[in-house]
Amino acid sequence: MNHLRTLAVLAVLATGAAAQTPADKDKEIQDLKKRVEALEKEKGSGGASDSGSTPTWKDLVSLGGHLKWYGVLRLDCHYTDSAFDNARFPTFVRAEENIPFLGGVSAPERNDDNFVASARLTRLGFDLDSGKIAMLGDASATGKLEIDFFSLPSSESRAVPRLRHAYGKVGWNWLYVLFGQTSDMASPLNPSLNPDNVLWNWGNTGDRRPQVRVVSEPTVGDKLKFFIGVMAGQEGAIRNVDTDALGVVDGDDSGWPKLEGRLAVSFQNWVEKKWITFGISGMTSEEQIDGAGVGGRHVFRTDMWAIDFEFPILEQLTFKMEYWRGRNLADIRGGIGQGVLANGQDIRASGGWAELKVAPVKWYAATLGYSRDNPHEHNLPFGARSENTVYYLMNTFTFDPFMVSLDVSHWRTEFVGLNAGRAWRYTLTLQLSF
After folding, report:
1. Computed from CA positions of residues 13, 18, 20, 26, in that sequence, does the dihedral angle turn out positive or negative?
2. What's the rounded Cα separation, in Å, for the pair 32 and 140?
3. In whole angstroms, how far apart are CA 376 and each of 286, 348, 349, 396, 414?
4. Sorting pLDDT into bands at 50, 70 and 90, what band is 106?
5. pLDDT in tens, 269-300
6. Integer Rg of the chain from CA
7. How far, in Å, CA of 241 to CA of 235, rounded?
């Protein structure tokens, strides 16, 4: 196309040279130069002036902006020497004894092993940068959309998409508003093991839910920054239960969102470009059950507070942990999925996790960790789950963009009046990022 334009300019110059005065020639030359410059400018700015032009961001994003695609292609293989309640999404290890289990379901035999291979954690997403909004003081406008294929129930060869993140974010360097679906603000960190459910109900709390949050992140100099945030989200987004069977989910029936907040401080230490962070967070919400209620009660509160800590000790050594405590925590993945007893009494629980990651070389890291969820036993009836614990060692080999992980973990569930369930789990993960 550029060659044709240049030939056209030369042809016009050649045919008109003899009949024009010098002044006419100079004027026409200047006009042609301007036309050529305009065409070059259009080409350089990404304008699509004809059907043969390369697509630009204006062709892909209707209101302008840029998309950055990312994702992983992944396979997870798990061998477990004893039975979980769900081999793909474990909440507890089943009691290993030959007596009727809760609800009349027989307990599995001791060492009832299983093997699961899954590509469900294959992930696809994009980050959106829509530039600045002049009418809002040049506020930035960004967003994220991310899916994987972990929706249950579905077969391994017919896995369906699951929405992970879908949100917009508008604001400035020190203040922003986020709206859509993303992770809870309270209890914000996640352990490295078990990425399909990140040790939910095993000591890690917090999930994803629709929400709106306002966050301020002021900085003091180059080595001190703060996080001050509040959030209103969907109560019951995880449990999604309608106990009274009146067609309204218990969380919706309360008339209130789940309210969360977090305050954190970060500062740099001797490890360059890494931050020590300490945070404290909390959340509160309500569920309402009409009709007869549960144990004569109709309103059930959920309350939790948590602390989080992340400490880069050395360039090759990092420690992080969370601790939490609260009541009726099933909708935030605490209490081993147990929130309220049949008599209407709240189940109180505490727990947390900690891990130490060592990366002696660029391509290898070892992560040693422990996690615990402890519903308080004096509240629980016979057969209820009273404690979950996990010990784990991860060996991760990274050859960007390829990653291999070999993990070994020991899982234990305590029951009221029953033998404990114990399981060793061995995991192989293969992942290709893009």
Report:
1. positive
2. 40
3. 21, 6, 6, 35, 12
4. low
5. 899 889 999 999 999 999 999 999 999 999 99
6. 29
7. 11
Peptide bond into 401 cis (omega under 30): yes
The C-alpha atoms of residue 131 and residue 290 are separated, in whole angstroms, by 48
**Spatial separation of the C-alpha atoms in residues 292 and 140, rounded to whole Å:** 50
**CB under 8 Å to 16, separation ≥6 — which residues?**
25, 28
For the packed helices 22-44 and 2-16, what is the interaxial angle rounded to 10 degrees? 170
- What number of residues does the chain have? 434
Does the structure show a pLDDT above 70 at 50? no
Single out the residue of 342, 249, 263 nearest to residue 308, CA to CA.
263
Q: Which amino acid is at 185?
A: M
Residue 75, CA distances (Å) to 72, 156, 411 in order: 10, 11, 22
- Rounded CA separation 83/94 (Å): 6
Give 328's DSSP letter: S
- φ, ψ at 335 (rounded to 5°): 70, 20
C-alpha dist (Å) from residue 193 to 53, 209, 254, 409: 47, 22, 35, 9
Token pair recorded at residue 403: 């990653």
Report the range of poorest mean pLDDT among 47-56, 236-245, 351-360: 47-56
The model's pTM? 0.84
- Cα end-to-end distance, the chain, whole Å: 34
Q: What residues are paired with 303 via a beta bridge?
A: 284, 327
Identify whether the C-beta of residue 385 lies closer than 8 Å to the C-beta of residue 414. yes
